Amino acid sequence: MRMKATLFSLTIAATLMAGCASQKKTAATPNTLSANEVKNGWVLLFDGTSFYNWHSFKGTNGVNSRWKIDDNAIAVNTASQERGDLVSNEEFENYHLSLDWKISPNGNSGIIIDAQDDPAKYEWVWVTGPEIQVLDNTGHPDAKIYKHRASDLYDLIASSSEPVKPVGEWNHVDIIHNRGSLEIKLNGVTTVKTTMWDDNWRNLIANSKFKNMPDFGKFKSGHIALQDHGDGVWYRNIKIRKL
């Protein structure tokens, strides 16, 4: 996993402090690390109060008004007329990403991995990075489309089961991206497991909406992006560790 020195040099001390502080808090306290997580190399990408590790795609001044901090979470500000996905400052390779999400009624969003942060070359992050779907399965029209439901690897692989919680409740997702192996877990249940960059992977792309996007799904490292699909969505407890 490639993380610039700035991430570790500026966050490791904060991470250690968070870990120590978390010993005095309950396990339910959002956006903190336990002492055991710190020991095992977890790093927070969101502290509950700032956008320190994030920026807006195509943004020139950090995070634009389309994103806000609400309910101890990163959230889409639907009142803002600005648009744009939120992108991690750092890029990652071989990692375990863990986070919580909840969606608004009829809402749609996604978690994009291996995204390339190059606005001069790519119009959107989703033309490069695969997306783990975040969706209201009961209300959004995409739920009627195969491979477009919550926890699907969007338009590539359908979730093997649907342990998604109702709208307004927090869901926990684990994304384990390690040397070509990709596993997605929703609320502790493995929903997608596949191998990237082999013939089957290329066939999946060739039979998807991404087939005419020459760089889609080819990168072995990249940024993490939270999708602005125009709807209310919340993300918290965003943490990562290298593998």
Description:
This protein is 13% helix and 32% strand. The protein starts with a helix and ends with a strand. It contains 3 helices and 13 strands, in the order ααβββββββββββαββ. A hairpin with a 2-residue loop joins strand 9 and strand 10. The protein has one domain: Jelly Rolls. Strands 1, 3, 4, 6, 9, 10, 11 and 13 form an 8-stranded antiparallel beta sheet that branches. The chain is globular and about 45 Å long. The longest helix has 18 residues. The N terminus is likely disordered. It is mainly beta and 243 residues long.
**Low-pLDDT segments:** 1-5, 12-16, 18-26
- The CATH homologous superfamily is named Exo-inulinase, domain 1
Q: Give me the count of strands.
A: 13
Average residue pLDDT? 91
The fraction of residues assigned to DSSP E strands is: 25-35%
